[in-house]
Amino acid sequence: MLKFAVDCSGADKGSAVVVNAIKSFLIQNKDVEIFAFGKAEELSELNGVCHIIDAKDVVPMEAGALEVMRMKNSSMMMAIDYMKNQGLDGVISAGSTGGFLSASTLILKTIPGVKRAALVAPFPTAIKGKKTVILDIGASNENSPEELVQFALMGSLYAKYVYGLANPNVYLLSNGTEEGKGSPTSKVAFKLLKENNFPGFKGNVEARYALSGDADVVVCDGFSGNVFLKSSEGIAKMMSNMMKKVFKKNLWTMLGYLHVKKGIKEMTETMDYKSTGGAMLLGVNGVVVKAHGSSDAYAFKCALDVAKKLAENNLAEKIKKGLENE
Predict the structure, then answer these.
(1) Burial profile 143-174: b = 16 or more Cβ within 10 angstroms, e = fewer
(2) Given CB 3.0 to 4.6 Å as the disulfide criterion, which of 5, 111, 180, 299 pairs with 79?
(3) Is 120 buried (19+), middle (13-18) or exposed (0-12) by CB count in 10 A?
(4) In which element (H, E) is residue 70 found?
């Protein structure tokens, strides 16, 4: 039976959405055991459904690594500690991103051989139902060429076992497709991937084509990945607002909306971040899933679904074996 620790505090919308997500998740997954950490009075609906561990302190969204590590009685720290000490399969939180990732790395430790853990997220593409895995999207600001090569391996394994892709196409994010393009770090990483005949490596991809659907995995340093993530989110939001203004302009545009309503709905579903389950920290011992801070019950349930899939596929162990075979 799989067992997960869930930080029920710290989400933008409060613990109620996490409680509803856990209830919904356990109805469909009776073979999973959940340990819920948070204020007991806010988790009363989970009595008899899962284990409740009272944790009064909540990690602030802006908390840094040192502050989080000092908050021993917070729901986040208690969840991570419990996962490690009790041998649970994973931990999920919608709380402070920086605090959660730092504490998880420091407490759980990286898999032997992993130079740096990477934050990975699936992005929607122009192909309906197709996701592109991008990493690192912000676990660190600077990375070495060797770390990028490891990101390629971890991202490829993620795409293989989460999305069932037998031979994922792997690209390096760059400012041009030619071999000589890219930052000094990515140029060296390109050379290493090419010389080692890395499975599925296709070369460089520009940001404007990264989500065309051709790339299964896009590798980049954490700084570039985080800029790509936030730029994509910003453009998607801007386009959505612009379309709303266009269709509300007058009676004729509102009538026109009725003709394209189905297509817009499909586009909205494609761009919906909620179904991705948030971001996953790869390279540490165990499953670590960072749900979106603004998650509703559906989004947090998707995070639980992803955690289960990662644990079922024992991705951490596969990363370990993959590094041993390098």
Answers:
(1) bebebbbbbbbbbbbbbbbbeebeebbbbbbb
(2) 5
(3) buried
(4) helix 65-70
H-assigned helices in 164-221: 184-195
Output b/e per residue, 182-215; b: 16+ Cβ within 10 A: bbebbbbbbebbeeeebebbbbbbebeebbebbb
Lookup: tokens for 155: 């991202």
* Tens digit of each residue's pLDDT, the chain (326 residues): 899 999 998 787 888 999 999 999 999 998 899 999 999 899 989 988 899 999 988 887 777 777 777 888 899 999 999 999 999 999 999 888 888 888 898 899 988 888 889 998 888 887 877 888 999 888 788 899 999 999 999 999 889 888 888 899 999 999 988 888 889 999 999 999 999 999 999 999 998 888 888 999 999 998 888 888 777 777 777 777 777 777 777 776 766 666 566 665 665 555 555 556 678 898 899 999 988 877 788 889 989 998 998 898 888 888 887 776 66
Cα(281)–Cα(304) distance, integer angstroms: 14
Can you give the pTM of this predicted structure? 0.82
User: Directed axis angle between helix 222-247 and helix 251-271, to 10°?
Assistant: 150
Within the chain, how many helices (H) and strands (E) appear? 10, 11
The sign of the dihedral angle between the CA atoms of 110, 4, 314, 159 is: negative
Which residue type occupies 91? V
Separation CA 109–CA 286 (nearest Å): 9
Beta strands in the chain (DSSP E): 2-7, 32-38, 51-54, 90-93, 118-124, 131-135, 170-174, 201-206, 217-219, 279-282, 287-290
Q: How far apart are CA 187 and CA 145, in angstroms?
A: 8
